[in-house]
Amino acid sequence: MGTVHAKQSDAPRSEKLKTHPNPNEDSHHRSQKKRVTLEGIRARVDKIHVDGLGRTKDDIIIETVRELFKAQDFQDVIVGAHTVRSRLEALGCFRNIGVFIDTSSGPDSTPEGLEVTFHVHELKRIVGGVNTLVGNNEGSVVVGLRMPNLFGRGEKLATEYSYGSKRTTGFNVCLSKPLRGKMHSVFSTSIFQHGSEWPPSGYKQIERGLLFDLGFSSAPNVKHNLQWEASWRDLSCLTRSAAFEVREQSGPTLKSSLRHILCVDRRDQPIFPSTGAYFQLTTEFAGLGGNVGFFKNDLTLQGNWPVLNDVVLQGAIQAGFLKRLTNDQIVSICDQFFLGGPLNLRGFDFRGAGPHSDGFAVGADAYWATAVHLYSPLPFLSTRGAFADLFRTHIFVNAGNVGNFNLGDDYHENWKILSKDFRMAYGLGLALRLGQMARVELNYCIPVQIRRGDQPVSGVQFGIGVNFL
Amino acid sequence: MPSVLLTESLAVELGAREPWPVDVKLFQPYDVEQILLPDNANCLAVQAYLKMCGLHFQIENRSNAEFMSPSGRVPFIKCGAFVVSELDPIIAFVGTKGVSLTNDLDNTQKADMRAYMSLINTVLVNAELYVTWCDPTTLNEVTKPRYGSVFPWPLNHIQCWQKRTQVLKKLSILGWAQKSLDEVYSEIESCCNALSQRLEDQKYFFGDRPTELDGLVFGHLFTILTTPLPNNRFAGIVRGYSNLIELCKTVERMYFDRSVPEPST
């Protein structure tokens, strides 16, 4: 942002400047306008006005905008105003924010002085909504209620209640509060209950719990979450014919765990990225009270490289490892790793790879899965409109393994153990983006490495979800 | 739930084709520190019944036996691929293997036996549940520590509360929750009286051979007699009927005495 176009105003002495929310937009029509170098122009912010404040407390606003007073030249002011605007947005208290920069006037004004005005619209006290949700063999109604900016310092209370067609109820009450400081940290507390059914494993689960979460970023794009979770899981068999190994796991367990999630996202967009890498490492230690104890690591790594125009090569790895701590602490089936399904190992049924007992997936202590995709836009569509941009075709190869591996110190030996009896499938398909969150895939899969007890899907497989391998 | 009925009949159909396997296991809670009076009575009744049939089984103690059971009640047996819980379904299941204790009885006697079994199931079982979960002293001194012993804090309190709510709901539907302790004791009194009169001086209820009624009576009365409770009136009432005590002793000696080798089929 070295240059900013200045609009010629009718008023001779006030040069009205308006920053644009997206700096990239400027570049398109910048060439026709007069270029002004702003770094040389000395400037100083005399006053900052924030218009439209109601219940928001002053101290948090002052904290947010104070940085702007440090500006030395005009470019600092523009850039600073932009960051302040996005930080005000990040508070989650305001609907839309406008920025106006004007020369300062009045008795206290300095010769190079400027006045910056932020026009804000506070959000309503209560925002609500009713949604319907279909997933996991059940349709449900979700009633949501949010109270943004509860006490005037960006606190938010969000409640959600869902009622399913199988008479399951779920709820989530979350109170979050942004903390002051450079780390953009947010502290949140949630109480939740949700039920889920896992037909491939033959069990259902009701989870009730309490979660404390401290989220902060240590560098741009590097996010951390420190969590403590206490959850009471109630497992029961879905059917009478469920495998006895699954039946043995039924009953309530209490997990109390500390979790750290490290997430580095340097991709250009979350769905169908064309460049950049993504890394997520979840480390969980359970066993601080409760009767569940384990140490669990889960890693996701994804890289994207543009090959030809619009053709992207994507490589991804997922791996997880769970270590049992003591014999008297339980590791439940719901803590285990599973592999298979359209979201990770395509070409296999959901949870269709790995250890099975009487046809029910029982999970394992470790897994790895890797996939290579070659994405390209829809062929024969020369006009690249917004509609065609929702689709990608891809060819892929994915492989993985899941089991209770006995690893030692010898890397060569370990590699042999991990790669023995691995599963592999390849295929091609069509992927559709749903907003910037989820995606839908329709693939034709050809499994090539199948083990005894696996449930491969050769042919068309449909998948919908958020996190795809 | 139609699916349960279907699998039940399927289990009975398929089960009939195979003989009694050797690896049958009976699952129940830990009997030293966990099991409660009503559960213990039911487990003992099933054990007595299977032993009377001369069927071999192994007892497996699991802290989550109650949750593993398909009906939510202990005990249950695992016989090959089949999981059958509680006495009546187990009797039916054993019947499909061609084993029955009631072959010698005529229809009137069978109906008589059913009537006494349902008397026990309606009176003694509810009385046990009442004493275990509604009597404040027993609840606090015995039930809560024992039932919660297998759960970590604070789950022990939550599970106790949940279980108690369930039991109270059941008892109030059956009209037992509103009764006073004295009324419950008089119910037990009349139940024992009826049983005692039916038994008279016989060895078992129907002559010289035991039936499932003997197993059920043994399971409940033996548990009531041997379980230490803060309020001992329950056991005291049973002790007043010497022929019932004699029955318990006979069954114990015949089927549970470790020094005597197990009766062979």
From TrEMBL, chain A:
Keywords: Membrane, Mitochondrion, Mitochondrion outer membrane, Transmembrane, Transmembrane beta strand. The keyword Transmembrane applies. Residues 149-468 form the Bacterial surface antigen (D15) domain. The keyword Iron does not apply. GO terms for cellular component: mitochondrial outer membrane. Residues 1-36 are annotated as: Disordered. GO terms for biological process: mitochondrial respiratory chain complex assembly; protein insertion into mitochondrial outer membrane. Its main location: mitochondrion. Pfam families: Omp85. It is found in: Mitochondrion outer membrane. It is a multi-pass membrane protein. Residues 7-29 have a biased composition (Basic and acidic residues). InterPro entries: Bac_surfAg_D15, D15-like. Belongs to the SAM50/omp85 family. This is Bacterial surface antigen (D15) domain-containing protein. It comes from Gryllus longicercus.
Automatic annotation (TrEMBL), chain B:
Residues 43-164 form the Mitochondrial outer membrane transport complex Sam37/metaxin N-terminal domain. CDD domains: GST_C_Metaxin2, GST_N_Metaxin2. Residues 189-250 form the Metaxin glutathione S-transferase domain. It is found in: Mitochondrion outer membrane. The keyword Protease does not apply. The keyword rRNA-binding does not apply. InterPro entries: Glutathione-S-Trfase_C_sf (IPR036282), Glutathione_S-Trfase (IPR040079), Metaxin_GST (IPR033468), Mito_Protein_Transport_Metaxin (IPR050931), Sam37/metaxin_N (IPR019564). One of its GO terms (biological process) is protein transport. GO terms for cellular component: SAM complex. Keywords: Membrane, Mitochondrion, Mitochondrion outer membrane, Protein transport, Transport. This is Metaxin. Belongs to the metaxin family.
